[in-house]
Amino acid sequence: MGIRAEEDYQQLKKQIHNHVVERLDEEGVEVERVARQQLVAFIQSVVAQYIASHRIPMAAGELNQLSKEMVDEVAGFGPLEPLLADDRINDILVNGAEDVFVEVAGVLQKVQTRFIDNDHVLRIIRRILAPLGRRLDESSPMVDARLPDGSRVNAIIPPIALDGPSMSIRKFNTRHLNANELISSGSMTRECLDLLITLVETRRNLLVSGGTGTGKTTILNLLSQYVPRNERLVTIEDSAELQLNHPHIVRLETRPSNTEGTGRVSARDLIVNALRMRPDRVIVGEVRSGEIIELLQAMNTGHEGSMSTIHSNSAKDALIRIETLLAVNGYDAGEKAIGRLIGSSLDVVVQLVRLPNGRRHISEVMVLKPTSNDPYKMETLYRSDEFVELSSNAGEADG
Questions:
Q1: What is the pTM of this model?
Q2: Most Cβ neighbours (<10 Å): which of 33, 141, 322, 381?
Q3: Domain(s) of CATH 3.40.50.300: residues in the chain
Q4: What does the pLDDT read at residue 331?
C-alpha cells in the first residue's frame, strides 16, 4: 500500500469509527455489557452498510479486516490488539502515531502497525488507563501502571513528550523459562546453574545485575525455585512480575500516589514492614532508590539468602551504583562505612548481558571478598567462555 493509499485508509478508519460509535449510541448498545459475538455481528453489519452506501470499492478480505479493526477500536486497544496477542513479543514501543516498534527475542524491530493520528494514540492510552483509575492530562503528563494481566505500561504526553504521545508496554510473561530451557538456549551452562543452586542453598545474599531486557526477572524467578521449602519468603515489587514456585510466600506491591498526591507506598516502606513479618528471606524485584538502605541492613541482620536485581552493566558498576543510591537517599556515613556496609551485606553478583544477536546470557558470577583496603574486592566464581571471547574482540576493536 502506497503512502497516499495508507493515509486514505487511515482517514476512512476514522470516519467509520465515528459512524460506528454514533450507531452504538443510537441503538443503546453498551459495549461492556453486550456479548462479544453480538457486538462483533453489530459492528460487521454497520461497517458493511457504510461501505456499501458510500460505494467504496473493497474486496471481501479487506472488508473483514476493516471490521476486525473496528471491533478492536471499540472493544479493545485498537492497533495494539494483534501485538498484545502475539506471544513472541515482549515489548511494545509507540513513538507517536506512525512509529511502532516491538522487541522479539531481544531484538527491536519496527512494525507496520500505525495509528490514525496522535489523538488516536492518546485515546488508546486513556482507554488502557481508564479501568486502572489513573489520570493522564497536562497537569499529570506521565503515568506508570500495571494492567490486569500483569503487563506494565508507561505513557507520557505533550507538553513533556515533544513529538506527541509515547507509550511503552512490557508484556507480562505468564511462563518463564526453566533451567533446562535456559541451558538449551545458551543463556547459561550446567556448571553455572549448579553454582547458582549452591549459592542459594547456602543462603548467600545475591544481586542480579544487568542492563534493560537482559532477563534479570527470569533469573530471579529461577534462583527462587531453589530456596528450601520450609523457609518463608516476602517479595517486594513495583509491578508484580515474579512467579515463584514456593509454598510459603507473601507478595507485596508498591502503590503510587493518588490524584491528590497522597497514599503512596514505596518499596522502602514495604521492606521496613516486611522485616516485621518474620521472613527468612526478602526478595526485592529491583532496587532503584532508598529501599537499598533497608535491604542491605536486612541482609546484614539475619535475613541471609535475600535477593534483588539492579540495572548495571558490570558487577563492579553494580556496587558503585549501590554506593550512589545510598548517598543520594540520605545514608549519612563516610565512604569507608558505606564500603563496609556493602561489602558485609552482599555476597555475590550475578551479571547478565545481552549478546549482539539478542540472546540473554549470564556472563559472570562474582563473589565479594572485602578487605580493609578494598571493600569491593571481588573474585570470579564463574565466567562464560562466550563472554570472555566477546570482551576480547571488543578490546581488539577498541585498540
A1: 0.74
A2: 322
A3: 179-396
A4: 85
